[in-house]
Amino acid sequence: MGKLKVASIWCEGCSGCHMSFLDMDERLVELISKGLEINATPITDLKVPDEGTDIGIIEGAVATDHHEEDVKLMRERCKLILALGDCAVFGGIPTMRNYVPIPDLLERGYITTESTVQGKIPTSDEIGKHLSKVKAANEVIKVDLYVPGCPPSADAIYYVLKEALEGRVPVLSGELLKYE
Amino acid sequence: MEKKITISPVTRIEGHARVTIHLDDDGKVQEAYLHVDQFRGFEKFSEGRHFSEMPVITERICGICPVSHHLASAKACDEIVGIDIPKTAKLLRELIHMGQIIQSHSMHFFELAGPDLILGWDADPKIRNVVGLIQANPDLALKAVKLRKFGQRIIELVAGRRIHPTFAVPGGVNAALSPEVKDEILKGIDEMISYTQEGIKIAEDFIEKNKDLCEKFASFSSGYMGLVKEDGSLELYDGKIRFMDKDGEILKEFKGKYYLKYIGEKVEDWSYLKFPFYKPLGYPEGVYRVGPLARLNVADKISTPLANEEFKKFKALGNGKPVEGSLYYHYARLIETIYALERVREILEDPEVMSQDVLRLGTVQNEEGVGVIEAPRGTLIHHYWVDEKGTIEKVNLIVSTGHNNWAMSKGVELVAKAFVDGKDLKEGMLNRVEGAIRCYDPCLSCSTHAIGSMPIVLEFYDSEGNLIDVVKRD
Amino acid sequence: MENIKIKVNGNEVEVSPGKTVLQVLKDLGIHVPVLCNYEPLLPQGSCRLCLVEDRGVLKTACTVPVEPNMDIKTDTPNVIAARKLVLQLLFSERNHYCMYCEVTGECELQDLGYEFGLDHFDFPTYERKFPLDDSHEFIMMDHNRCVLCRRCVRACSEVAGHYVLGEMERGIDTMIIADMDVPLGKSTCVSCGLCAQVCPTGSITDKRSAYLGREVQSDIIYSNCDICPVGCGMEIYKKKGANFIVKIYGDWNSEVSQGLLCKKGRYLSLYDEKERVSGIRIKDDFGYRKGNSEGLIKLINSKIKDAIAYVDGSLFNEELALIKEIFKDKVYSIYPVEPQIPSNISLKDLDTAEFFVVIGADLNRDYGAIGSMVKRRVLGKKAKLMVIDGEFNSLAKIADYVFNTKNINAAKDVLKNEKEVVVIYRDLNKEEKEVLSSLNNAKFLFLPQETNTIGLHNLGIKHEKVSAPTVFIFGKDLEGIKDLPIENSFKIVFTPYENEEIHKADVVVGTTNGFESEGSFYNLEGKTLRKEKVLKPVYDAIDLKTFLSEISGKIEKVF
């Protein structure tokens, strides 16, 4: 039972998977005491995972060029990649925009919505460029572990991290393997 | 020569954001912008779905406050079927909403904002987070975990699961309360109130020790908006919307479904998050804030005793005028948590909460429905248009953090001007800029109905685009 | 025929001929995953999940009949790999979003995913849009969730007999369609809902019961529908611990209906068709005042002497028995209950009939289950249909012969040449009765007006126009009240619904309705069926049986 360094990012997700991670409640403290080291995550202030991070956790689907860069960086820095939640594993709800042309999406959001006044489409360079198709993580990089769910239960997340801490490859089944 | 600092991403907030700070030749801050990245398109891709699916689709806008969306959506659906839901259903919906408030506020205070307040703005980024808190003060950290767990447990026990439950449906809710669940929740309330009061003590001590900072940090005038009960006291689930101006005068009160008359949204080129404003005053005079600080500003009192005591202390900070400093949001958040805990007890002690009559079956009666609720971060509005079969034709969402967009940007600008020295850039300065954003506990996934990501690297460019300095958090 | 010898997973077994490999494996207790297969529908073989290996060749167990020398292997690596590939293809072919689907947790595709440990997609997904048909009042059809199992097409034709659903195009463009590819809400669909019941995924769902709960969260109550005198068997899913019904399924094991339901039983039964009467109201000089049950019993006691009772066919046997006990022989039916020609067949006989005659009844609109039984034979080309009606009858569209009631003799000329005809009728005029009675090859099925009209007949309650100073009226539709000679009587009405006729009543008492009450009744075959109570009333309504028991104890027997 050595140390296990994990880092995480969230892409096109709702943060529900990270909340489910926190839903481990006291078990999170237990895992930390058993050697779980939490590196760069959206809820800590470190931005980029260390080289040689053991597990890189990705929440959310890949929807912009920024996301693609982020997941590729995770693949470089982390020994194993874990896709957490339906969005990262399958694509999830963000893919519902795949059937609507991007100009139509933006027009509804920024021009025709009833409360919008003098609408226009934001075009600054500071904001991300949308890919034409929202993708699952494994369509961009190689993924080693999958934990589906929307969100995956805290039990499933706890099981996976505990197995990894104890040096085993986790295999989800029964109540822990859910797509909802 | 223009210089620009980029903070990307902003951490310890929900969602994606970048901050750019533009400097003048002397390295002093000229302007600052909060760019909200990414956009998902819920308002468009929901078109064509059946309206009863909306509570379960729109809750996926956010994983921290799915219950708020779930309930606002269900309320809009209730209007579409034209049903006044049974009282038991109202009580149960409000019950999980209080669970949401408790969970979200406590998580924000202890785990997101807390590290700055408890460990310090300039603490080493490696430990300036929830894990650092666990190591520095395990006792407090455990209480924080338990408080969040209590709120989540309410949602889990009553609605079936903690995140993205299926519970509220058009016409009511789909399950009744069992006596065992009622007892389990009632048992825990007093302990949770005591933990929250510990948090209030930390906030009050911080305010005491940092009076000047609190008065000046991201402190500015604005309007305020929130729900209130008929008698003007704080309300988080139903009620009517109250608008207050920067001097504390009540400008208007109206039922949520008339929001289009009063709220408009402006688009700026440099952010995917729109800028809501109070239409009668125009933009930008009509900008306003929502959320805990705003709700306590617009309310006359709080209907539960312990929270009301704290409320009076809060009001005193403003001396008869609205409280303006952004840091007071953290204090207001905890006061609302006490109200939520006391309200949970009130709801569970109402005999009607145990009735099995939780659903009234309906058919499509109206082709429009609006649902309004106070999510942890502020007023949330769901508006649906359907055809006679119930197919969604149009959706308009104004999500809590959106109302605070202008305020966050303003806060960033003020704090950057006060603390950022372009000639001697330190990581802690930038953390304070982010801290301004964090006061608002923004939920940027919600507000852009989109998702964002969050790493931060600070890059310092000169006007020719040469990279001069980099400050990273590693 | 003698038994066949085959090998299954290395073991020799003897099986009877005429079975499919799947049936044999089931009998042996060997699990084979299935998706498009659904008893009692005929096998389809479209999903390919039930693949097994036989002498090196992959075959669909559901369609292949057993033959001698088979060497069936159900879990070789080849078989398992094939099934996993099929599953991956099924998930990626269309757009499956489990997280917000209303059948998540009880979806057969999802269960297969869990069974095979599918935890990611091998193929690119979510690229092609499929339509969502939300045009129908009760049924939602989301083609994004369709696995093209064709259960809906088979159920709509083989069992429900409506033949509305079909398929168009081929390969990846195959789509399930209604009629000639029109929106379901604009098609000839009669809303029987069987497609939604058999669909394995969330593709076809019941809009009304969306998100109300899962089967594991419900109590299942077996009951018979009491909306019409067929009395179809129902599986009622009531949410545990709460006072509402999640959904109603047809009971495949029902002696009466074998799984059939219609729009009325499955959907309309959950709504109150008219405004409910709440509480007790007593007429006084200013209109009506609210009464209570004690006051009502006193009033009844004072008026019971020389009182008579009118009843209709919505009352249960237990209620009718109590009314007879109280009013003795002074109980009359509001409308005539005598069948002009007594029924001499049961519903099961319809499944072998070769010529149907439907007179004066639109089976699509009323008696939906009988409509299904007739249509599945007729549209399945196993029987002919003659419709005789004086006004529009939607069955005329599919009939071989259509006659106006004035032309009954022309109809007879056709009928007398048939081997055997089944005459299904509601009401016959004098001429029709004469002509049809003269046929010597006819069997008859009488369609009573209400659920328990036969009960009125069996309990000896006749239709007579009688007057009395005080008249008690018990019933639901109260059709025919205005023809009774009771203008000047003191009227006490027990009914669940507001009705124009009862505005002239002196006392109106709201009674329970639908799933709030229970009792037994005689269906149109004369079988005694039972309707179960499932919900508590949300209106202030009295349970008639309980109330009648109370007053029959309290009333002095004056007669």
Task: List key phrases describing it.
heterotrimer, A: 180 residues, alpha/beta, Rossmann fold, five-stranded parallel β-sheet, two-stranded antiparallel sheet, elongated, B: 474 residues, alpha+beta, Cytochrome-c3 Hydrogenase, chain B, five-stranded antiparallel β-sheet, 16 helices, 16 strands, 43% helix, globular
Give the helix/strand layout:
The complex is a heterotrimer of chains A (180), B (474) and C (559).
Chain A: E1 4-10, H1 16-22, H2 26-33, E2 36-38, E3 53-59, E4 62-64, H3 65-77, E5 78-84, H4 85-89, H5 102-112, E6 116-117, E7 130-135, E8 145-147, H6 154-165
Parallel strand pairs in A: 1-2, 1-3, 3-5, 5-8
Antiparallel strand pairs in A: 4-7
Chain B: E1 3-8, E2 17-23, E3 29-36, H1 42-45, H2 54-58, H3 66-81, H4 87-119, H5 130-136, H6 138-159, E4 168-169, E5 172-173, H7 179-209, H8 211-216, E6 223-228, E7 240-244, E8 250-254, H9 259-262, E9 263-266, E10 275-278, E11 288-289, H10 292-298, H11 305-318, H12 328-349, E12 368-375, E13 378-386, E14 392-398, H13 400-403, H14 405-419, H15 427-438, H16 444-447, E15 457-461, E16 467-472
Parallel strand pairs in B: 6-11
Antiparallel strand pairs in B: 1-2, 1-15, 2-3, 4-5, 6-7, 7-8, 9-10, 12-13, 13-14, 15-16
Helix pairs in contact in B: 3-4, 4-5, 4-6, 4-7, 4-12, 5-6, 6-7, 7-12, 10-12, 11-12, 14-15
Chain C: E1 4-8, E2 11-15, H1 21-27, E3 51-54, E4 57-60, E5 71-73, H2 77-93, H3 108-115, E6 132-133, E7 139-142, H4 151-159, E8 165-168, E9 175-178, H5 194-198, E10 204-206, E11 218-224, E12 233-239, E13 245-250, H6 263-266, E14 280-284, E15 287-291, H7 293-303, E16 308-311, H8 317-327, E17 331-333, E18 355-359, H9 368-378, E19 384-389, E20 401-404, H10 408-415, E21 421-425, H11 430-438, E22 442-446, H12 453-458, E23 470-474, E24 490-495, E25 507-510, E26 519-522, E27 528-531, H13 544-554
Parallel strand pairs in C: 1-5, 16-17, 16-23, 18-19, 18-21, 19-20, 21-22, 23-24, 24-25
Antiparallel strand pairs in C: 1-2, 3-4, 3-5, 6-7, 7-10, 8-9, 11-12, 12-13, 14-15, 14-25, 26-27
